[in-house]
Design goal:
Elements lengths: L2 H38 L9 E5 L5 H10 L7 H11 L8 E5 L5 H10 L5 E4 L6 H10 L12 H7 L15 E4 L5 H21 L10 H14 L6 H14 L6 H8 L9 H5 L22 H8 L8 E4 L7 E4 L2 H22 L3
Antiparallel strand pairs: 1-2, 3-4, 5-6
Helix pairs in contact: 3-4, 7-12, 8-9, 8-12, 9-12
Length: 356
């Protein structure tokens, strides 16, 4: 081939190469623009109150499929994968439930998943609940997964790693946060551990002169005190009454234990016959503490029992004025007078509330 023809061929190839490069650059620019527009554009397909759940073992393709199922139509799989790699999110998406917020972008969504900004729900265990009430609250909680609903109390405690332990009083009343994918057993495990820590702290800080001999006894007594009063300032005084009764061998004679012994048949009224009916929880017919806690005490009740107030009162009864406060008495005669006063107030309130 002659030298001029070679030069012309080389020039043609150079022009072709430059042309293809320009085309490729233009295509890449267009693709980049499309990608940039996708990554930061609002996800208009998202509706209010939608979320997506990432579970253990979910890969990015699985998460993308879940997003499609939730109605997210923007972007191609390749764009999502490129964005995930750019953000360092590929393989680092954290387990949990994520809100699909209208107006958010794919970049914001993947960043939230990478950083674990999950949606949290709240469940509050109320002071004074029994295990039946706790189970009912767990059953109502959404989107909490239900694993304990088919377990009886014995199987439940075994599932939590505490076989043979009575469930009453073992779960600390407070508010617990959870996210999609969590189960009722997860909440119960955390609440059980929290109660164990709170009980240990109260026991370590106890007055060494109290009549209680073990942390278990402290938990049992705290459940009684929790149910006897909703007035924080009275807890230590009531704990003092019961501590003095134990010291002198006097029966506790506390209605909440009798009610617990009656069980689900309790209709809201406690009768003289109930006080005389012997059950393991009837502290009118039996000495000492009942065999287990009867309700779930809070931290304040635990510390009140660990450090009961000094005094000489052996009795207390509600004032009857609707405040929830009590009258404390040293002798039975004083107590009987306070009871008569309570009955008078109670009857007056009934008459004032009855239609004329």
């Amino acid at each position: 081939m002659s030298r001029p023809r070679k030069r012309r061929l080389g020039l043609v190839l150079l022009v072709l190469f430059v042309g293809l490069s320009l085309v490729a650059a233009a295509a890449a620019f267009v693709l980049w623009q499309r990608y940039a527009a996708f990554a930061d554009a609002p996800l208009s397909s998202i509706q209010e109150n939608q979320s997506v759940l990432i579970e253990h073992g979910d890969s990015l393709p699985v998460v993308l499929r879940k997003l499609r199922d939730a109605g997210v139509t923007e972007g191609e799989a390749l764009q999502w994968r490129v964005l995930a790699r750019e953000l360092g999110a590929d393989g680092r998406l954290q387990v949990g439930e994520y809100a699909l917020v209208p107006g958010s972008s794919p970049r914001e969504l993947l960043l939230a998943m990478r950083e674990g900004k999950v949606v949290y729900h709240r469940l509050t265990i109320v002071e004074g609940w029994n295990i039946r009430e706790l189970r009912a609250a767990l059953a109502r909680a959404e989107p909490l997964e239900q694993e304990a609903d088919q377990l009886d109390d014995a199987a439940l405690m075994e599932a939590l790693g505490h076989p043979g332990q009575h469930p009453e009083g073992r779960f600390l009343p407070e508010t617990y946060l959870y996210t999609g994918g969590d189960s009722d057993l997860d909440i119960l495990q955390r609440a059980h551990q929290a109660m164990a820590r709170a009980l240990d702290a109260a026991w370590q800080q106890r007055d060494p002169e109290i009549a209680l001999e073990t942390p278990e006894e402290l938990l049992i007594m705290a459940a009684i005190v929790e149910k006897e009063t909703g007035i924080g300032a009275e807890r230590a005084r009531i704990a003092g009454v019961f501590d003095r009764r134990l010291r002198i061998g006097m029966r506790l004679q506390t209605d909440p234990t009798v009610i617990y012994g009656i069980g689900e048949s309790y209709d809201g009224n406690i009768r003289r016959s109930d006080l005389a009916t012997d059950t393991p929880y009837n502290t009118y017919t039996r000495d000492g503490l009942p065999p287990t806690p009867i309700f779930m005490p809070g931290v304040d009740a635990l510390h009140a029992v660990a450090n009961p107030a000094d005094g000489d009162a052996l009795y207390f009864v509600a004032i009857g004025d609707g405040s929830g406060r009590h009258v404390f008495s040293r002798t039975l005669a004083e107590h009987n007078a306070a009871v008569r006063q309570y009955v008078r107030r109670y009857r007056q309130n009934l008459r004032s509330q009855s239609p004329q």
